[in-house]
Input
Amino acid sequence: MKDTHKHQGLRNQLLTILSEKGISDQKVLAAMGRVPRHLFMDSGFVDFAYQDKAFPIAAGQTISQPYTVAFQSELLRVQKNDKILEIGTGSGYQTAVLLELGAKVYTIERQQELYKKTHLFLPKIGYVPKKMIFGDGYKGLPEQAPFDGILVTAGAPFVPKPLLAQLKIGGSLVIPLGETVQTMTLFSRTGVKDFEKQSLGSFRFVPMLKEKS
Ligand code: SAH
Output
């Protein structure tokens, strides 16, 4: 589990690509420049770790494309010590980026195999979320609410009401909405009952599924 100069060089090239594609938040770029993405991928795919592509991980899931991770992280506007809920832990890569941004991270995964693997792996490489939960993200995490931000990393057919309810006023929900293609959507909570919605481009995610498995 090494992180070498060669990996850092490849990461820097990736950051250049992300900037060229429009990512401008320097804190997000710096955070991604610190996370050794190659360690989050099965060994066969290590050579691809610093291409701007999604890749298969265990249990038929994917590690999101770096551009998507950067785009979602940028929308979330994470401040140090923000309490962030992530739905879809997957490989833990996005979790690590949120931790590098200084967030206190709660993350939920519904696939037991992935949950177990990532639960062991993240602390092993120095990334320690506040809590990793095996559960159903449609319910959010009411016992830890409210959150400054909630980030959904799977394609949701609709907005789960509990997630909106678990936002602080001033907080944001970033969620890809749609069945086959998703529209990245940002909900900002402006009052107890008030939300502003922005639609921000098309993406493709694995589906957000109900219940644990
Ligand atoms: N953030 C991850 C992306 C993984 S893909 C990464 O960087 O690797 C999306 C993940 O969401 C998958 O692991 C999938 O199992 C999980 N998922 C899908 N529906 C879910 C739900 N209802 N609750 C929690 N996790 C869910």
